[in-house]
């Protein structure tokens, strides 16, 4: 296969893998295609990368002997790319790491690092394939064959791999109360909240802002929901707590209110559309047990169909907005620091 075709296939594949990987962090039910594309492209990249490395092997050896800086970057890029692909495939087949970080998390970090180094690598190397190459029937058939082989390999790996959701997450701790993993998006780690003095404020685009003590609220709504964490696990439980819809009815959202933001004592926050928020729950119990501190005691958001980082913990305020507060994308990165 022509060298330029291989290079552009690698560039396109890495770009699509990065885009679908990042989009998967906020994927909703029905977005299965994102994960299918991500997995299929990843397996196909193995073939194109193998062709690339075979073609440049002599150049790399010569560069190593000459201590070339450009070749050093190429080697770094190769190591990152191979590691990203290897960790993704290993995760599919059930491999695990000791400690807090999963292989899926490491795979994501390596994928982003690969893209960053690739940008520098291509700065003075990128060139368009010739028209003759693009029109070459043999090149086209070779490319289609490689992509088809990659898709078939992905389907085979998907069938032979360990049980997991479309997101790649494996089951951990379902129906076991607080026994499911404790995680934080970045650095949220507040001191335990005193449930005797804790209160919940409802502010923003409402007819009258209010603050409720625990004794003012009814925590009797039950809901079964699945928590799918972006670090690679999921857990399904029976949750009990306060209906957000009932809470909003007590404060009367004003005309034009369209977003409901759930705010943590740490500054962490996330918003849901008003109609979706009404069907969510502010949980105080899981499988009949009071939430542990690590899982958000005294109250956390339960948002069915959302990824785990959107289930805000240690909730102390619910704020209504006419427009979405996009600063929350910054807040979730710096809260707790």
Model description:
By secondary structure, this protein is an alpha+beta fold. The chain folds into two domains: 3-168, no CATH class; 177-334, Oxidoreductase, molybdopterin-binding domain (Sulfite Oxidase, Chain A, domain 2). It is 45% helix and 18% strand. It is built from nine helices and eleven strands. The protein has helices spanning 3-24, 32-66, 69-92, 103-122, 131-135, 137-160, 244-251, 274-278, 328-334, and strands at residues 170-171, 199-204, 210-213, 221-229, 233-243, 259-264, 269-273, 281-286, 289-290, 300-302, 315-321. Strands 1, 4, 5, 8, 9 and 10 form a six-stranded mixed sheet that branches. Strands 3-2-11-6-7 form a five-stranded mixed sheet. A hairpin with a 2-residue loop joins strand 8 (281-286) and strand 9. The radius of gyration is 24 Å and the shape is elongated.
Radius of gyration: 24 Å
Could you spell the SSE succession in H and E letters?
Answer: HHHHHHEEEEEHEEHEEEEH
Number of helices: 9
Shape: elongated
Low-confidence stretches: none
CA(first)-CA(last) distance: 50 Å
List descriptors.
alpha+beta, Sulfite Oxidase, Chain A, domain 2, 11 strands
Summed up:
The protein has 337 residues and is of the alpha+beta class. 45% of the residues lie in helices and 18% in strands.
């Amino acid at each position: 296969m022509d060298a330029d075709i291989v290079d552009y296939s690698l560039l396109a594949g890495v770009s699509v893998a990065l885009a679908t990987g990042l989009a998967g962090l906020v994927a909703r039910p029905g977005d299965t295609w994102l994960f299918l594309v991500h997995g299929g492209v990843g397996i196909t990249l193995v073939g194109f990368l193998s062709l690339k490395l075979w073609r440049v092997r002599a150049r790399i050896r010569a560069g190593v002997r000459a201590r070339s800086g450009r070749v050093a970057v190429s080697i770094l890029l190769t190591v990152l790319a191979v590691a990203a692909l290897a960790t993704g495939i290993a995760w599919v087949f059930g491999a695990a790491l000791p400690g807090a970080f999963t292989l899926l998390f490491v795979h994501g970090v390596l994928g982003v690092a690969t893209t960053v180094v690739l940008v520098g690598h291509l700065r003075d190397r990128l060139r368009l394939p010739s028209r003759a190459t693009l029109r070459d029937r043999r090149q086209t058939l070779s490319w289609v064959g490689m992509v088809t082989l990659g898709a078939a390999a992905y389907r085979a790996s998907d069938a032979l791999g360990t049980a997991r959701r479309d997101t790649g997450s494996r089951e951990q701790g379902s129906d076991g109360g607080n026994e499911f993993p404790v995680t934080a998006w970045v650095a949220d780690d507040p001191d335990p909240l005193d449930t005797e003095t804790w209160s919940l404020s409802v502010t923003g685009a409402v007819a009258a802002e209010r603050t409720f003590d625990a004794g003012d609220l009814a925590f009797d709504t039950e809901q079964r929901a699945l928590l799918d964490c972006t670090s690679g696990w999921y857990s399904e439980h029976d949750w009990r707590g306060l209906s957000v819809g009932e809470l909003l009815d007590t404060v009367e959202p004003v005309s034009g209110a369209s977003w409901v933001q759930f705010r943590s004592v740490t500054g962490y926050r996330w918003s849901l559309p008003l109609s979706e928020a009404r069907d969510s729950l502010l949980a105080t119990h899981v499988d009949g047990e009071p939430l542990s501190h690590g899982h958000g005691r005294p109250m956390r958001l339960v948002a069915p169909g959302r990824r785990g980082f959107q289930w805000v913990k240690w909730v102390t305020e619910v704020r209504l907005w006419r427009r979405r507060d996009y600063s929350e994308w910054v807040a979730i990165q710096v809260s707790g620091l």
